[in-house]
Write a structure and sequence with these properties.
The protein is of the alpha+beta class. It is built from 23 helices and five strands. The longest helix is centred in the last third of the chain and has 35 residues.
């Protein structure tokens, strides 16, 4: 606000540009600071928040300005950070070379320049730019129908529609592959660079299908000139083979993943993304203890209109013993043959044209499945501990050392019990403190991050309950207990949501104080509980 002239005789515009990631990602509580700033500005009568379009409508430009081309906010050499080894880097690896930037830029530009004229020739003028409506609507049936009614009012058959959608998706991917983060960091193996290559891969695959334009061999050849800092790879071509090709998916791969997710009662994330419609029918499936599934999956890419039906099968016998199969529909008899086999893994491998095993899983699939089966591991360990506890106790009574495995088992079981107590809201703080001391005395540190996450979640749930039941002090008392238990280690707590809820309840606190002053015992208990909870959260009540 101090940037405006002191004596304003004309409209003035002050504009502020900051990285969106500043607010809460790069700077903790940044989003709260931003909210405060916006509220402070909105409270002023002589200043208001606007956007460029609105301002220019009200105040047309009166001067011309020259823009210095080829400059950026994060490179002292102009824009060399996005195409050359200029010396600018993140600072994480000061000795690393950025000589890979030039070949990666060259490869991306090659795809762009080869694809653009062919797409322009195949699509009517303005069609690509208007396709943003499809993206914003996540390619809903209504948006696709409206789009083609505008651009093909004479009608269009299914094949032409799919071809047009595929071309538009290739163009979208070609824009995504030019995202600046692909060159900003220190090595071609980093996520930003890998992601732009994945977008380029998708654009090239669609160009091959729709335009009969094969660019991948040339793309890889250019990447062979890109040196790599990561010792696991020597050239960008190796990075492409290791991190880009395996991540490419088609309809059959999504069908296989759908079978895997269905084993655990989960929906495939491709469906949640809005990019695909996925529907599975599973007439053959076993229970969660023996995970095996067989059925059909229909997959439709909403962005391109491509659609197919598959037979799909999945067998899970451990995170390292997974087999997925996909094939053209074969009918009920083919299903029964596979299902009734005494060797399910062998039957899937022999009967399905495309087979995937554990090494073929994406990181997202591994993470999702591991998260699903993880709690079962803790339960199993605790069960073993309960069975072994009498023997361990007898050894301690006799003064004999317990085996190392038993000691680790005991430490893990205690840590699991701590976690369970936090998830219950710490109903018995004394027991929690005693168990915490036993854990501290052991040789294995508990997972403080997991305990802190559980405590943060429980505190938030308690505050939500307190807001929903404004006369009940019990949830507030639970907040104080849980925070008190969390301080024993201490645990890392994420309290911003709980603090915001608490701040929003301060008006009710003032009302309850007044009621307490008039002799309302229940209001007095509530006000005292709120004051203690607010103090635990670091929130001022007045």
């Amino acid at each position: 606000m101090g940037a405006f002239s002191r004596e304003r005789g004309r409209p003035e515009l002050v504009h502020i540009a900051t990285d969106g990631e500043t607010y809460g990602h790069h700077r903790e509580f940044g989003e709260m600071a931003l909210a405060y700033c916006l509220r402070a500005i909105e409270a002023r009568r002589d200043i208001r928040i606007t956007v460029y379009g609105e301002y220019l409508d009200a105040h047309p430009p009166t001067h011309e300005a020259l823009i210095r081309e080829g400059t950026s906010w994060s490179c002292a050499h102009g824009i060399e950070r996005w195409r050359a080894e200029c010396g600018c880097h993140s600072g994480t690896h000061p000795g690393w070379s950025q000589a890979w930037r030039g070949p990666l830029r060259e490869a991306i530009v090659m795809v762009r320049d080869a694809l653009a004229p062919r797409s322009e020739e195949a699509l009517a003028a303005g069609v690509r730019d208007n396709a943003v409506d499809l993206v914003l609507a996540r390619w809903s049936d209504e948006s696709v129908a409206a789009f083609f009614s505008r651009h093909a009012p004479g009608g269009i058959d299914a094949g032409e529609r799919q071809r047009a959608l595929s071309l538009l998706e290739a163009e979208r991917q070609a824009m995504l592959m030019q995202a600046s983060c692909g060159w900003f960091f220190d090595d071609i193996t980093e996520p930003g660079s890998v992601q732009v290559m994945r977008h380029a891969k998708r654009a090239m695959d669609l160009a091959r299908q729709v335009l009969d334009l094969d660019l991948e061999a040339r793309f890889v050849e250019i990447l062979r000139r890109a040196p790599v800092n990561d010792p696991r790879y020597s050239t960008g071509a190796e990075v492409y083979d290791a991190l880009v090709r395996p991540a490419a998916v088609d309809l059959s791969r999504i069908a296989a993943g759908t079978a895997l997710y269905a084993l655990f009662g989960l929906d495939h994330p491709a469906a949640a993304s809005g990019m695909y419609d996925v529907a599975g029918d599973w007439p053959y499936r076993l229970n969660a203890k023996e995970r095996r599934i067989l059925g059909t999956v229909r997959v439709r890419c909403r962005a391109t209109g491509e659609e197919a039906l598959f037979d799909a099968a999945a067998l899970f016998d451990g995170i390292d013993r997974i087999i997925l199969g996909v094939r053209e529909p074969g009918g009920g008899e083919a299903f029964r043959t596979v299902w009734e086999s005494s060797d399910p893994a062998g039957a899937i491998a022999g009967a399905f044209s495309r087979v995937y095993t554990a090494p073929d899983l994406s990181d997202e699939e591994r993470w999702t499945i591991s998260r699903e089966i993880g709690p079962g591991i803790g339960d199993a360990v605790c069960t073993v501990y309960r069975d072994a506890m009498p023997t361990i106790g007898a050894l301690e009574d006799l003064g004999l050392p317990a085996p190392g495995a038993a000691v680790r088992l005991l430490a893990h079981a205690r840590a699991e019990r701590l976690l369970a107590m936090i998830r219950e809201g710490c109903p018995d703080p004394g027991r929690f403190f005693a168990l915490a001391e036993e854990v501290r005395a052991g040789s294995i540190e508990p997972d403080l991050a997991a305990l802190g996450e559980a405590a943060s979640r429980r505190i938030t749930l308690a505050l939500r309950a307190a807001a929903a039941r404004p006369d009940d002090p019990a949830p507030l008392e639970e907040v104080s207990r849980t925070v008190g238990c969390a301080k024993v280690f201490p645990l890392p707590l994420a309290l911003w949501e709980s603090q915001n809820i608490c701040v929003g309840m301060r008006g009710h606190y003032a009302e309850m104080r007044e009621r307490a002053g008039r002799g309302d015992g229940g209001a007095e208990r509530w006000a005292e509980a709120f004051g203690r909870a607010a103090a635990c959260l670091g929130v001022r009540v007045t």
